[in-house]
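Journal club side-thread
Mid-discussion, someone asked how the predicted structure for our own chain would compare to the paper's figures. Pasting it here so we can look after the session.
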Amino acid sequence: MAILIRDYETRSTLDLPDVGAWRYSQHADTDIWCCGYCVDDGEIKLWLPGDPVPAEFVEAAAKPDWLVCAFNDQFERLLEQHILGPRYGFPTIPIERHRCLQAAALARALPGSLDGAASALKLPQQKDVIGRRVMLQMAKPRKPRKGEDPKAILWFDDPGRRQQLYAYCKQDVTTERELHRQVPFLDGAEQALWILDQAINDRGVYIDRQLLDAGLRIAEQGRTEIDVELAKITEGEIDSVHQVARLLEWLNAHGAKLKSINKENLEKALTNGLPDTTRQVIQLRLDGAHAATNKLYTMRSWLNGDDRARGTLKFHGASTGRWSSYGIQLQNLKRPVVDDIDHAMAAVASGSLERLRKDYPQPMSVVGDVTRAMICAAPGHRLIAGDLSGIESRVTAWVSGQQSKLDQWRRFDETQDPMLEPYYLIGRSLGMPEEKARAIGKIADLAFGYQGGVGAWRKLAPDDPAPDEHIKRLQYRWHAAHPHTKLFWKTINDKAVKAVRTPLRKVQSQRPEWRHVAFESDGSFLFMRLPSGRKIAYPQPYLRTDPERNTVSVVFMDTGLRGWSECRNGFGAYGGLWTENVVSGIARDILADAMLRLEATGYKIVLHVHDEIVAEVPDEFGSSEEFLRILTTPPVWATDLPLAAKVRNGPRFCKSNTKPIEPEPTVAPPSSNSEPEYVDTREESEPEEPAPEPEPEQPAADNDAPAEEPPHRHNSDGHVHGDAEPKRGKMVTRWLYENPPDQPNYLRVDKHITSDGKRNFYQHHWNGTTSAISISITGTEQSGSRALKVPMPSERFCTGFPGSRPR
């Protein structure tokens, strides 16, 4: 069996992390600088645009015993699908013969970047650091030099940089080959799941573009309003809620005494005796920095021309095997708090902040509430969603042999009596009244099930005023009711320690009720074997002894918030952590097993979030009953595990029967990129701390200017709605109108806000021709004029609200 390893270097005017691999690879401006490749241990070669298709690629496509692989293979595959094939004649290699080195590294709990994985394993071949800087330069347009056309799109393409880039690309292939020598491909079951993951990502989720665009219009209105008010209060020192460093400095200078301006700190500060102006600034920051509304901009950037967002799910994003998200972060959507989601959607759909404010005192929060509703089914289809109920509680009881808890879940599933639900029963056993029993019981089960105590309780119930001693008493009562789970914590930690102490020996409990969870170490990795047969990896394990507590724990390297570092700051794992990992891993395997069955039955999955699966099917296909039956069928390795789920179906990813309005089809000029575009006009936020480097291996950008640049006139020339004075203040929004009533062709309007809150509108007329025009998301027809986004080499145009005067 031959293995073809390949790596592409690209350039574009789009930014890959901002738009996602699918949209990046489909864009007309994205192109290839070079391809480095090798077969097995053979010579590393280089292909350049204009060269013949390499014989190795032709042979790999023709011979079924060949495999192709890359680090983050999805990116290379999409480049081949959208660029290498159509433009350069590369053959298509079936997905069944693709292998992903990134997925293999993540399955070993290694960092998700090639340089991170190579560094963690101390490979003899590492990434080229100097070459990486050159790659980043060449990945996006450079600034015009003196004497060059200031409106042209230009690249760093001198011979010296090209040679450095080619060397960098070949070194990436060398590093990937060395990585494969130490990290095997996914096994058969996980490889089949990865292939399904690729299909789900390629399918994407359908987005209600009209509702999204209306929400963005409101967000723009609200942001401008808040920023103007902020500039007034601070006397021009701060003119955006996203200026984090300036806000922190200003607030501390006015009595706040904050270390950071996260939501928790700001809300706590409001309870202190602060000056009115300081309280106003804090409230403006809270109102204007809604993460849910910020998500709308990302959603719009990832949206493709067919109103679908693709490539948002990250396979094996967590070390236990669970998925995480790219871009839109679909795994972290805000749950609506409004009572009537349909009414909220109607208010947001108006696109008017004033209209929304009539019904809701916190309009920006409501815009965030309808984010889930923007995910919907395509015309002629519906969504069927199923969410496994109480899965962590069930699996914890099952894997630890807590039979009394399993019996409670079975009785509840049979009767559906809310007074027999285990969460309710736990709450009552803890002395809670009926109205609070379920909520408190669930918090107790989640907080104490993984050996947690007061700290875990506080995280789940931050507003609980109960003293620590009261929570400790609840903890002891929970322990008394779950003796097998408590014993499991100690035993599983002992088995992990023994496996590290005696490498190459399989260590497991002989008690059948503990489901044969086993450990084994090869010296480089500790593996936890789950009932499904899959293994969770723990890199570079060693033992740590605490003489004061007379305990021994396993320390391993982890990719947590602190980057590649020792787990728990070097204190190592404990029984509750191992239990959480095994429960999370089993729950993931149950979900994955159901995904494969549902997909095979014709339920096309478009999204899955934690323990919920969402399929998009034709209106006449399937039923909720069948979906539920397939979802809750236990795997063959867990036939005695009671499963239950709640299933709903409808047009949206929320409890609503309101269907999206089908957009009217638009026809773009043949030479244009028909994909609608929206340019985010928000200022770049000042980070509270340095942001980590993005994981995707390839950089981001966009490219290729039209062959001929049309003439422009860039003066504010006395148009009836324009300010002719010299420009003042900061530009916050830009509009472009087609066929304004008193000027030919196109009108651009720039909105500036000065420090005293004054708004000025400066106009520019363009009497050239466009090579690409697409109706903007905020454009509506009025008096024969439409707001458009027209991509031009020298400028980025955003859109706003047409009318006699922008507001």
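Post-session note: Confidence is low (pLDDT under 50) at residues 665-679, 683-726, 738-746, 765-807.
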